Predict the structure.
Amino acid sequence: MDKTLNGFFLGCSSPSGFRSFFNELYSPHEGGYAYIIKGGPGTGKSTLMKKISSVLNENGVENEIVSCSSDPDSVDGVIAPDLNCCIADGTSPHVIEPRYPGASEEIVNLGQFFNKTSLRENAENIIRLTDENAACHRRCRRFLEAAAMLRSDISRIALDCTDEEKVRRFASRLAAREFGNPKGHIGEERHRFISAPTSKGILLRHERLLELCDRIYVIEDENAACAPLLLSLIRRYALSAGLDIITSPCALSDGNEIEHLIVVPLRLGFVTSNRFHPFGMGEVKKISSARFTDKAALRTKYSRLSFTKKACGEFIDEAIKSLTEAKRIHDDLEALYISAMDFSQMDDLAKNIAQGMMSRSEI
């Protein structure tokens, strides 16, 4: 499978809270090994992982940088598939604890570089800011949960006006043309959030899709009806054809809707485009949901759809505002920790961990 998935997310805010695929970082039962970083905000977790990625790159080791949805400029992890090894931020909200300490994981304790006296002097502010940050994330979840309920209503209305059999026939023809016949084995599936709610809004990683895909089908669907059905069928056909895929669930749904999909060996992408994350870059082939829709029937639902879409959008806007406020508070919290950290040993720590990861190729 492709090993250059830099910039996608393994976890993000969702209607059910923080949803993640951090279980896909490594597999202890297949010899995988993980370095799990523990330390507060501003303790250099992201910087450390970026340094490790640089050392791996300098030594010709391909690696994937996992972005942080709370702060897209930050890093949640680095995965080196050829080494069957990773390093990840193991603090909230994606808490990771060792299952087989020393055998499959080890803790990287950045607390060893704390000036504890300074942190104790700022204990009141640290506790207050930490609690305020958590409250913002709870508020975000409530708004996303409300938006998901309205989004489900929009989807149900649109599905009532959708010719699902027509969608199935289209998916079958497309799969026959793109994937060929079943190969007698099932492809491998990985999960990433290609789009996600972040402190910068709902981000769709356009540039990464264009780097990974030579061809892209854009499914234009404002009602979250045709695209999930079509993509679930395409996923099944691709896996049956023995093709490895990257599946991207919809972070705004309250279920397991697929929003984007990449068929890795074919460098072929399928992207849902809507008003929350429009996609209009590069040479693409568009699939309009209108081709599967009874437009006359849908027009009779216009007033209800219009009201519900507006309310759903407002809830999502409030969720994003909560994430933005959480990021602002997190920055204040980081400042307190940064002032209490000794970063002088960080370069050596990064080199030592990278060397430890690379030594696994000799095991």
Notes: The chain has nine helices and 15 strands. The chain has a mean pLDDT of 93.
